[in-house]
Amino acid sequence: MDTTIYVTTQRSQTLAIVDLKKGQCTATIELAGQPLGVVLSADGRRAFVSEFAGDYIDGVYSPGTIAVVDLVKRSVIKKIPVKPFPFALALDDKRRSLYVTHFFAHNSVGLVSVIGTDSCELQREIHLPEDNDIVSGAGGVFTAISSIALHPCAPRALVVGVHANVRRGLS
Questions:
Q1: Contacts of 22 (CB under 8 A, 6+ apart)
Q2: How many degrees, rounded to 5, is the angle at CA 38 between CA 35 and CA 39?
Q3: SS3 string of 91-115?
Q4: How far apart are CA 26 and CA 16, in angstroms?
Q5: How remote is the C-alpha of 2 from its chain's centroid?
Q6: Residue ranges in the chain modelled with pLDDT below 50
């Protein structure tokens, strides 16, 4: 049984490879942009890491990035530009898609990016629009999306976030 786990370390900006049996970090892979979420491919050969603060891709700053890491070679093989503040990740190997939540709303909508895992390119963005129900106090912008899980049998994702009622008290 493999006793290896992969841990993002924001402060040192690495992906730490930890051997639980030995109780120690055996290697690190340099990243950038405050690495946060990590998910492994089904075959364990790749990791996808959200870089919350973004990074430079070919000399151009991207406010959000997903690092694709080759775990065999222990190196970053691609940086995928996404909207700012990528956070939680969920991998759907069957559909060959990576779902990325964005912690803060963009232009008054919550956001989930969908990346093709074969092409390592952004396929589409799923917008979670503002709920206009401000009377009951339940409405607002769907933001702070901190978690995502994929339904095992249906093409459905479950996300955890809060409604930031930015319009409460406004007429």
A1: none
A2: 160
A3: EECCCCEEEEEECCCECCEEEEEEE
A4: 8
A5: 25
A6: 167-171
